[in-house]
Amino acid sequence: MNASPVSTVTAPASTASGRSRAFATASACAGGLLLGVLTNLAQGWLPGSWNQIANSGAVWSVAAFVAGALSARRVGLPVAAVAGLCAESGLVIGYYGYAEVARDGMGSLFAPLVWLGMACVAGPLFGVAGHWWRSDSPRRRVIGLASLAGVFGMEAIHYAWGLHYAPQAWACLAALVLVTLLMGRTHRERGLALLTSVAFSLVAHLVFHKLILERLLG
């Protein structure tokens, strides 16, 4: 007599959970593809060297972070990681797909494959970061928030010392500060996230730009 009600309740819950997972991944893919096209278009809209902002690693990482954050209350951490992967991969595919179809072509497949490989790493990481930012754990919230802010710090270092684009460097630095101040819940959380993001910025610049991109893309 007790088994029937349990199975009646479990089946709809399992179905709802499956729908939530499917919706999270599908919407992340669609959003990533759309943003990929928009970032390609934005390179033509933004003046001068500001067009670098449109397809910067920091801006692209926001998509995976948002995908993880939006799915935090509906699905678990693994699905948030997959949603981040879908969003980031969609960005790469949308960006280079539009370049191939609507512009002069994307050229060699080497660069798109490199960025797609980066998306397979950065997507899940920032999907998890977005999920952690929505968690009830103060430590996880700080790490998630510092990860998002730190990627802007990484870009600020690259713009300042690698490309010598001072305005863009200041803009990314301002984004780092604003992310921690506006998205932190408490003063302590904001302070810890700001300090942690500085450390993340330096490590990310060393690993991503110096050890990976410069060796692969020159």
Structure characteristics:
single chain, 218 residues, mainly alpha, 2 domains
Radius of gyration, taken over Cα atoms and rounded to an integer in Å: 19 Å
* Biggest sheet character: none
- Our count of domains comes out at 2
**What is the molecular shape?**
globular
Assembly category = single chain
Helical amount among residues, as a percent range? over 70%
Q: How many angstroms separate the termini?
A: 69 Å
Average predicted confidence as pLDDT: 86
Structural class: mainly alpha
Please indicate the percent range of residues in DSSP E strands (runs of 2 or more): under 5%
List the helices and strands and how they pair.
Blueprint: H1 3-45, H2 57-70, H3 77-102, H4 110-133, H5 138-163, H6 166-183, H7 187-217
Helix pairs in contact: 1-2, 1-3, 2-3, 2-4, 2-5, 3-4, 4-5, 5-6, 5-7, 6-7
Offer a quick outline of the entry.
The chain has 218 residues and is mostly helical. It is built from seven helices and no strands.
